[in-house]
Amino acid sequence: MVARAARATDLTDLDGAVSDCFACPRLVAWREQVARTKRAAFRDQDYWGRPVPGFGPPDARIAILGLAPAAHGGNRTGRIFTGDRSGDVLFAALHRAGLANQPTSVAAGDGLALRDVRIFSAVRCAPPDNKPTPAERDTCAPWLHREVALIRPTLRVVVALGAFAWAAWWPVLHRVYAIRPPSPRPVFGHAAHWSGTAAPTLLGCYHVSQQNTFTGRLTPGMLDDVFARAKQLAGVD
Ligand code: SF4
How far away, in angstroms, is 149 Cα from ligand 1 center? Predict the structure, then answer.
């Protein structure tokens, strides 16, 4: 699997390869079980039921790093943050920021296009309870590392959605940028910030989960502030 990730020569190649990954037995079983049993509201739909690749242009200056696909969102539609409430919040914010051509993300093929942003997750398969194990995180890391390597020429800012994504970024520094991660590691928080001299700036943002957005822990205004800052740091108009 590591070799397959490393061999990917561009994002199309990488997206195709990751979609065919079966390296984590527990997650393979879960993604396929969810795809078979379905949620009642989607019982007439064919679920994707496979790893979910990144989405966005190859010359992105901003990356959004999430945790993992949602069982009935990305795992259903095959596109990251597509078809669930988290995505509704995220893409509405990206549209307000001028980084998406429409405020909704319903299904692959719905016309959504991003500008200057690539979205991907630390773990590419939907995990039970949204909780991948440390071993699954580490097994999936080569896909993340290769994706960052492929967009490295333009990448300037990474927005980490939640503490899991924030923690997943540090090995990227070593693997992709050949620099030593800071020690101790900077603590995750909303609007937390880390910048090194030879790597993209890292911004923390509470995850766009329903738990955070329904309770008001993460508001649309807070998201707008994060993306305004990301655009400024990345030099995006
Ligand atoms: S989580 Fe990642 S490494 Fe594991 S099966 Fe899915 S794509 Fe492969």
Answer: 18
